[in-house]
């Protein structure tokens, strides 16, 4: 009888963990799909309000699943996307909120979603104004980009955003190498629209910087 109990516990640990992982994927999939629809199919002038509505939806999901790093990451991504879409000084509070959410997700699971929290945090540090206006910090951004790439070296997002950062920093040839690596990234099941849109951004940036690379 003790043997059966032990085996049962082992099966629960093994397959229960898989169920939790699948559950996280199921939780965030609708958010991922709606985010891609907003970013790649909706007019720019409508995006801030659409991101705001999606952020509210994601916040409620996070409240219902307080131990899900994946949901927190996506709340941070949506809030940071709204900040980028709104722009200006009014977006600073949103950027700070996105940073908080992403940092909270790291406390739960640093490797969640292949280190996506590090990629998003790095991008925030790279794009936000520096002190005393906000928290922008190029050195910190580079540290976080390298951390994200150590977790997901072939990923489309870490290579794209780091490549973009390097190009903005004047390191065009190095940045283009990361963009080319991003183009070779394996497709992400269920993220077809996001992958398609990201590849278009990568190709546009490669074309824009072609002369500077010579």
Q: Main attributes?
A:
disordered N terminus; Serine Threonine Protein Phosphatase 5, Tetratricopeptide repeat; globular; 9 helices; 75% helix; 214 residues; mainly alpha; 0% strand
What would your notes on this structure say?
This protein is mainly α. The protein has two domains: 11-141, Alpha Horseshoe (Serine Threonine Protein Phosphatase 5, Tetratricopeptide repeat), CATH 1.25.40; 153-214. It has helices spanning 2-41, 47-64, 69-86, 92-108, 116-127, 138-151, 156-168, 172-183, 192-208. The longest helix is centred in the first third of the chain and has 40 residues, at 2-41. It starts with a helix and ends in a 6-residue tail after the last helix. The model is unreliable at 1-22 (pLDDT under 50).
Describe the secondary structure blueprint for this structure:
Layout: H1 2-41, H2 47-64, H3 69-86, H4 92-108, H5 116-127, H6 138-151, H7 156-168, H8 172-183, H9 192-208
Helix pairs in contact: 1-2, 1-3, 2-3, 3-4, 3-5, 4-5, 5-6, 5-7, 6-7, 7-8, 7-9, 8-9
Task: Summarize it.
This protein is an all-alpha fold and 214 residues long. It has helices spanning 2-41, 47-64, 69-86, 92-108, 116-127, 138-151, 156-168, 172-183, 192-208. The chain is 75% helix and 0% strand.
């Amino acid at each position: 009888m003790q043997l059966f109990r032990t085996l049962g516990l082992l099966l629960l640990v093994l397959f229960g963990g898989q169920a939790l992982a699948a559950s996280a994927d199921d939780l965030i999939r609708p958010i991922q799909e709606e985010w891609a629809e907003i970013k790649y199919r909706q007019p720019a002038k409508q995006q801030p309000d659409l991101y705001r509505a999606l952020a509210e939806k994601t916040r409620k999901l996070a409240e219902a699943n307080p131990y899900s790093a994946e949901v927190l990451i996506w709340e941070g991504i949506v809030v940071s996307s709204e900040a980028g879409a709104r722009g200006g000084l009014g977006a600073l509070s949103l950027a700070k909120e996105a940073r908080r959410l992403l940092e909270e997700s790291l406390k739960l699971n640093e490797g969640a979603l292949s280190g996506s929290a590090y990629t998003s945090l790095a991008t925030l540090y790279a794009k936000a104004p520096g002190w005393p206006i906000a928290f922008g910090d190029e050195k910190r951004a580079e540290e976080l980009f390298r951390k994200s790439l150590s977790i997901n070296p072939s990923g489309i997002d870490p290579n794209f955003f780091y490549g973009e950062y390097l190009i903005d920093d004047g390191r065009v040839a190095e940045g283009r190498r990361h963009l080319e690596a991003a183009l070779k990234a394996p497709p992400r099941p269920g993220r077809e629209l996001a992958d398609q849109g990201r590849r278009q951004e990568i190709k546009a940036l490669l074309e824009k910087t072609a002369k500077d690379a010579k």
